């Protein structure tokens, strides 16, 4: 039995790599799959995923993992210099000047318009190309959604109080990465959008999503079909909440990738430079993208009018799906 270590940091970035993790376990069920990560704070969630055998949290002491194969999705020259000094068995990385000198890399390598989940799968293929090509088509990635831990303690109570609606759409306005680059629309813009949608579609429940650890919290007057749901730090709780949704409107952040796995239709406000990498739809669900260049704020009012129309069209489609 080999020890295959897959290394990826972050919350959303790690969720995007669940395809690769699941593929490794399906292709090599007798081997032990070790996830090495830093930044995904809910270790309990990861520990209860059946296709991951072991969790290591940190960015040091990789040698103690005793890997036979060490796969990293981190592409960084200083990190590669560190890896080169360690005894980790066979190391598989994305192509880089240093990785081409020291490690195994998937070649030929084209990633210009690939989703990050597909890029991570290239690393999995590098373990054994023939075995991968022969058996990859047998993997049912849609099954991943049924393997995620779920805890409906919070969401069950919330939805029991809001049973009378035909459809449920969540709006998520917070995202650390896009906030850090100044890309997210203003909170007031999102609040106005949620109010407009709730007035136009009274038969649909709209939910503003937030988290207990967020510094900013909503202080709005809720209406019958416009509510606020504040999740705990539990990702299993977020899974249960998202499983009740018919649609998601969001900035590019972790909940987008979770709803991608769960195949929840989504409309994503996303930077153009990450358009191909991190939008949804990679598990067969529907994902609409509203992508913009950085600096779109110069025409903020006009851009937001277009986004409002896009959100209305998205909501209309969700409303009409499976209707008799």
Automatic annotation (TrEMBL):
<dbReference type="GO" id="GO:0009244">
    <property type="term" value="P:lipopolysaccharide core region biosynthetic process"/>
</dbReference>
<dbReference type="GO" id="GO:0005829">
    <property type="term" value="C:cytosol"/>
</dbReference>
<dbReference type="InterPro" id="IPR051199">
    <property type="entry name" value="LPS_LOS_Heptosyltrfase"/>
</dbReference>
<dbReference type="GO" id="GO:0008713">
    <property type="term" value="F:ADP-heptose-lipopolysaccharide heptosyltransferase activity"/>
</dbReference>
<protein>
    <recommendedName>
        <fullName>Glycosyltransferase family 9 protein</fullName>
    </recommendedName>
</protein>
């Amino acid at each position: 039995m080999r020890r295959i270590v897959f290394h990826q940091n972050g919350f959303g970035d790690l969720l995007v790599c669940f395809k690769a993790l699941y593929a490794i376990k399906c292709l090599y069920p007798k081997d032990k799959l070790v996830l090495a990560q830093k930044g995904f704070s809910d270790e309990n969630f990861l520990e209860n995923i059946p296709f991951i055998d072991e969790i290591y949290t940190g960015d040091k002491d990789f040698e103690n993992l005793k890997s036979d194969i060490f796969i990293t999705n981190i592409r960084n020259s200083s990190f590669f210099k560190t890896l080169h000094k360690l005894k980790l068995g066979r190391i598989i990385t994305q192509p880089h000047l240093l990785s081409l000198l020291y490690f195994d890399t998937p070649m030929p390598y084209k990633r210009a318009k690939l989703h990050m989940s597909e890029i991570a799968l290239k690393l999995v293929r590098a373990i054994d190309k023939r075995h991968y090509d022969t058996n990859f088509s047998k993997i049912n990635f849609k099954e991943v959604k049924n393997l995620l831990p779920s805890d409906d303690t919070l969401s069950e109570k919330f939805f029991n109080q809001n049973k009378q609606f035909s459809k449920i759409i969540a709006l998520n306005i917070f995202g650390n990465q896009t906030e850090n680059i100044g890309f997210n629309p203003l909170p007031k813009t999102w609040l106005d959008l949620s109010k407009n949608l709730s007035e136009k579609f009274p038969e649909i429940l709209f939910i503003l999503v937030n988290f207990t650890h967020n510094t900013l919290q909503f202080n709005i007057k809720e209406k019958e079909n416009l509510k606020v749901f504040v999740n705990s730090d539990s990702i299993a709780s977020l899974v249960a909440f998202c499983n009740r949704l018919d649609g998601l409107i969001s900035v590019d952040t972790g909940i987008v990738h979770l709803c991608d796995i769960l195949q929840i239709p989504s409309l994503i406000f996303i930077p153009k430079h990450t358009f191909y990498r991190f939008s949804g739809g990679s598990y067969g669900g529907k994902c609409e993208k509203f992508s913009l260049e950085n600096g779109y704020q110069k025409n903020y009012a006009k851009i937001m009018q277009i986004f409002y129309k896009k959100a209305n069209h998205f909501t209309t489609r969700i409303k009409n799906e499976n209707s008799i």
